[in-house]
Write a sequence for this structure.
């Protein structure tokens, strides 16, 4: 009896009840039931990415509690510490000094008899508003048991150990079943903590002076944006655009993404400490049009001297997350991205994403590739790499960029200036048969109106991340080829130049 993801929340209730009973009888660690068996034999490590975050072992979904403190980026994540399937959800934990190399730490917050530890955020309580201690790291998460409630755990040792607050839960609602994924930040102007919470198909904002008592401020989302599935994992933060502060609201939705399954939409507007009011824009707008960038949230507490808004997403999709062909570890993070607002050719603002500059730290020198034809053999050996293509694509042209290997596996990127589309095709990308939803063509709007197209692509063992013109549109897609792609063929551009850099492995 293999569970489908669609009923994972219901199963969470069941698991929590079983978990509760088993915790009492210390039997929960026995995963001998059929659900946890996978009869496939996978050469897992063949797909372990060279430069992306993956859990050392077992299952991962959403990034959680992203926070920077004293030189460390903390990356907590939805984690099953026992198996490579969703279940017994806890917060895994890793830290990094550069957003690229990750040190794995013990599980930070373990499922308990109140339920699974679902997604959430963390803050540094510098003024000790909650009374746990000045500068406590406070995690605000959803405790998912018989119901979904919001709860706190705090750490006084930079995230190494957490204590669950004895007064949990801190926010409940008897009427809302899908009531989860609190993202909290300190709102200086109104001198209070603001929580964005996913409430079925809206985002509800709550305010608090002390993280323990919350009052409802407002609710956003009815009749606007995409509603093809449940709303999850919100994030609300400001960005400056043309000298003006705008507020961005990220909302992950599953299913209902533009190319199927899970995806993240966003809204741009104003937030006054109580209400988020969206600007009139052509919603839904999507953070990423690939199939594998979900539940992304941004780091809290990045110093003003840095000032970046940095996001990492879960590089998978609930359509097939439990069947991707790896078992010792399952699913990981996207490369971290810096978010900014840029102007769409039609004049309205859009959320742009670029790879973090920290990648330079593992990048070898850029090499310009030249060739008389259109096919280049890439001397990449066993390393992840980045290609940057400057292409001249006249208004009615369709250019294609094909990445391939000698096992006849390929990943095709199309830039169709006639249709104004940016497409990826992974139907022949390698192993695809583990899910009918995996072999896909994903279509994005091109979001630029120029013949000068810059395509930046990072290829790793199990992913292709492609960004157009400095982040105007992006696609993140998983792949499972037998070998790294090591050839590129470019056609349909009236001219192009190509450069390549390899990355040293982070392991
Ligand atoms: C999103 C999500 C969240 C929930 C978590 C459970 O992928 O469904 O809404 O908190 O996963 O693992």
């Amino acid at each position: 009896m293999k569970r489908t993801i669609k009923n994972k929340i219901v199963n969470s209730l069941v698991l929590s009840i079983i978990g509760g009973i088993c915790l009492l009888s210390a039997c929960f660690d026995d995963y001998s039931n059929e659900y946890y068996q996978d009869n496939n034999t996978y050469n897992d490590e063949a797909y372990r990415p060279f430069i992306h975050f993956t859990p050392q072992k077992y299952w991962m979904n959403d990034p959680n509690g992203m926070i920077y403190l004293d030189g460390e980026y903390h990356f907590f994540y939805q984690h099953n510490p026992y198996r490579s399937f969703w279940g017994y959800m806890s917060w895994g934990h890793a830290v990094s000094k550069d957003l690229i190399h990750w040190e794995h730490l013990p599980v930070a917050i373990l499922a308990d008899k109140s339920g699974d530890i679902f997604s959430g955020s963390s803050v540094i309580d510098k003024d000790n508003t909650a009374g746990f201690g000045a500068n406590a790291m406070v995690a605000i998460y959803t405790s998912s048991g018989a119901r979904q409630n919001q709860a706190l755990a705090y750490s006084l040792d930079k995230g190494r150990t957490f204590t669950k607050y004895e007064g949990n839960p801190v926010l409940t609602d008897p009427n809302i079943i899908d009531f989860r994924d609190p993202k909290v930040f300190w709102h200086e102007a109104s001198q209070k903590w603001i929580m964005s919470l996913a409430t079925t198909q809206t985002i509800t904002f709550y305010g608090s002076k002390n993280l323990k008592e919350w009052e409802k401020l407002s609710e956003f989302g009815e009749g606007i944006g995409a509603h093809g599935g449940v709303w999850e994992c919100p994030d609300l933060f400001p960005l400056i655009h043309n000298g003006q502060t705008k507020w961005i609201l990220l909302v992950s939705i599953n299913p209902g993404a533009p190319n199927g399954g899970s995806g993240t939409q966003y809204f741009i507007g104003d937030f006054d400490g109580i209400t988020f009011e969206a600007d009139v824009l052509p919603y839904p707008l999507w953070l990423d049009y690939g199939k594998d960038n979900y539940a992304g949230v941004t780091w809290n507490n990045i110093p003003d001297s840095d000032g970046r808004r940095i996001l990492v997403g879960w590089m998978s999709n609930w359509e097939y997350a439990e069947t991707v062909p790896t078992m010792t570890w399952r699913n990981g993070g996207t490369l971290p991205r810096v978010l900014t607002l840029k102007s769409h050719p039609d004049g309205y603002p859009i959320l742009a994403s670029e790879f973090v500059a920290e990648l330079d730290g593992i990048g070898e020198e850029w090499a310009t590739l030249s060739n008389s034809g259109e096919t280049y053999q890439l001397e990449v050996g066993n390393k992840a790499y980045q290609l940057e293509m400057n292409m001249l694509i006249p208004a009615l042209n369709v250019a294609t960029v094909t990445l391939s290997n000698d096992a006849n596996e390929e990943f095709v990127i199309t830039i169709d200036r006639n249709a104004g589309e940016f497409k990826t095709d992974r139907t022949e990308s390698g192993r695809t048969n583990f899910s009918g939803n995996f072999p896909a063509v994903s279509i994005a709007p091109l979001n630029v109106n120029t013949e000068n197209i810059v395509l930046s692509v990072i290829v790793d063992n199990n992913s292709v991340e492609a960004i157009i013109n400095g982040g105007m549109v992006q696609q993140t897609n998983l792949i499972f080829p037998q070998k790294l792609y090591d050839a590129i063929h470019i056609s349909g551009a009236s001219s192009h130049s190509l450069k390549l850099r390899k990355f040293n492995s982070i392991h």
Notes: Residues 361-500 form a domain with the Jelly Rolls fold (CATH 2.60.120.560). The longest helix spans residues 8-25. The chain has two domains: 56-353, 361-500. The longest strand covers residues 58-69.
